[in-house]
Design brief:
The structure holds two protein chains of two kinds. By secondary structure, chain A is α/β, with parallel strands linked by helices. Chain A contains nine helices and nine strands. Classes of the chains: A alpha/beta, B mainly alpha.
Chain lengths: ~250, ~280
Amino acid sequence: MTAIHLRDVSVDFPVYQGGSRSLKKTLMRAGAGGRILADASQRLVVHALDSITLDIEEGDRVALIGPNGAGKTTLLRVLAGTYEPTAGLIEVDGHVAPLFDSALGLNPDATGYENIILRGVYMGMSPKSMSGRMEEIAAFTELGDYLRMPIRSYSSGMLMRLAFGVATCVHPEILLMDEWLLAGDAYFLEKARARLASFVTGSKILVLASHSDLIVREWCNKGLFLERGQVRMFGPIDDVLAAYAESVHA
Amino acid sequence: MIASESIERPTLQRRKTANSVLALRDLSGGLLRWWLWGLVAWCDIKQRYRGSVLGPFWLTLSTAVMIGSLGALYSRLFHMDLATYLPYLSLGILIWGLISALLTESCTAFISAEHVIKQIRMPLSVHLYRVIARNVIVFGHNLVVFVVVMLWFRVQVGWADLMVLPGVALLMAGMVPTGLILAAMCARFRDIPPVVANLLQVIFFMTPIMWRAELLGPNIDLAIYNPFNCFIDLVRAPLLGEWVPATSWGVALGMTAAAWAVAFPFFARFRARIAYWV
């Protein structure tokens, strides 16, 4: 069964300032013992997530809500498995597809067709299975002969079409999205919406970080209100949005 | 904390998997994704030479020019017969090129894959294997130079040449842990890459590549126990129709074992932190 469980998950983020990136300073600190240690601790640590306990079950479409720096992106990366928590336990059952950056794995000098394969391979597909989906993706992007050209020559909207087409052809059980789907012309946006609708129904869990009330209400049934790395509230979307609005205006 | 506190939560039974198991899974799982790093490495090469007529054979050409001119000069300096010196020199330079490129590019293996590491979960070793695959492809292109030299000077081909296969295998087995340490250390300490580049320049002249070990006379041990020379020997000697000296095998095996002994615990300890470092 598809589910995500987090128990007291914390992420401490070291911020390496100029000095602590340097091998020389670190070695000197080790050699000189405790004296320099006090003032050499330029290692700032940010508590990006602070004991998050959370259960997301099948069918949940969760919106991550919160001010900038609340830990939304960090939480998404923890769910994607790229950041391993510094403390706590995380259990993710299901195939995860992160859609954070539309340009991920794209090679500007390669043609559209090559990039479709490249991007798919980064998402964990084999080149062979990507070739099988090529026609479907090409049809979706409606880029036609442009697919034979290097994507360096694409406009950002065209790039988005390509990235979106590839990203949604992998049918994941858990879909993680950052707010990046909002570029593109009205026609494409409508098309993307339809595609996303079938995509989202196919995946069992959706976690979406967004600042747009509209998008959040349309796609999500639950809200997770994060503040300074802590869960302020987790529950039905309308309640959470109301609480968030209240905290903003308070 | 409104809705979340009231529910009683089941405790998670799963215990944390040991770091060494995770590290082992990373290394083997990465290897299994050969289609990923193979394809990306191939794209790296294509991107470098897109739009040029000769493509990757520019590499071959520039290597050929270097070997040809160095060969002509140094065979006179060292009073050596071009027919024996040039095959020796060309192989030495080709293998050195592979080793030094692997070491330099390993330094940026994780740093340059930053955006992937932060977005998609995949074994970290994939990024190292990509660097290795890319440079093996380059080496393959450069090998054309040696084939030409071999045909020109009619270097004998025999069964002993097959000893090159275990030699290359050991070279790779030694490069993976070394690259792993470099890639991880460089993600954390950004001033290591220039140090590595500098050292490599010195080592190139200290290692019998342009000169023969015998020229050292009584100090020949300096070359025999030089690990770089030993690794080069593993590939060079068989292709020149010689047997690889036992010391070269011994030193190379020892260095490989030592590199793993350092790299594996290091990787196991810090693997999870690398995403935060890059």
